[in-house]
UniProtKB/TrEMBL annotation:
Residues 1-111 form the YCII-related domain. InterPro entries: Dimeric_a/b-barrel, YCII. This is Uncharacterized conserved protein. It comes from the Bacteria. Pfam families: YCII (PF03795). PANTHER family: BLL7171 PROTEIN, BLL7171 PROTEIN-RELATED. Gene3D superfamilies: Dimeric alpha+beta barrel. The lineage of its organism: Bacteria, Pseudomonadati, Pseudomonadota, Gammaproteobacteria, Oceanospirillales. Belongs to the YciI family.
Length: 125
């Protein structure tokens, strides 16, 4: 089953606390999860001030600078993993170095049963 491990941290504190992980440690952990065959994807995100939020209400699109909500912790990155069950996903999440200074939200990925649509000749999606 797929799980998404969302890494949250206070960007202002992320690299300033004594227990803060260094980028090399985070990369090494991601590589170890990848080598185990459980990492599907993972990325660190650019700082929250680079975020843009899109909303559509009654057919009107609005675009605003910044994240969806003001919080103490911001989404800093993610790991998409394949795990036998929630317990294994939680074990993987506990090993993410940023868990020492932030939090890791673990959520199962919902499998959608979307029928495959044939692609018309000469058209690409």
């Amino acid at each position: 089953m797929k799980y998404l491990c969302l890494v949250y941290s206070d960007e202002e504190l992320l690299h300033s606390l004594p227990e803060s992980p260094r980028d090399e440690e985070c990369l090494a952990y991601a590589e170890s999860v990848q080598e185990s065959g459980r990492l599907i994807a993972g990325e660190a995100l650019a700082p929250v001030q680079t975020a843009t939020t899109v909303r559509v209400r009654t057919g009107k699109t609005t675009v605003t600078d910044g994240p969806f909500a003001e919080t103490k912790e911001q989404l800093a990155g993610f790991y998409m993993v394949e795990a036998r069950d929630l317990n294994e996903a939680l074990t993987i999440a506990a090993g993410i170095p940023a868990a020492r200074v932030g939090s890791i939200e673990v959520r199962p990925v919902r499998q959608l049963d979307v029928p495959a649509r044939p692609v018309a000749a000469g058209k690409r999606g």
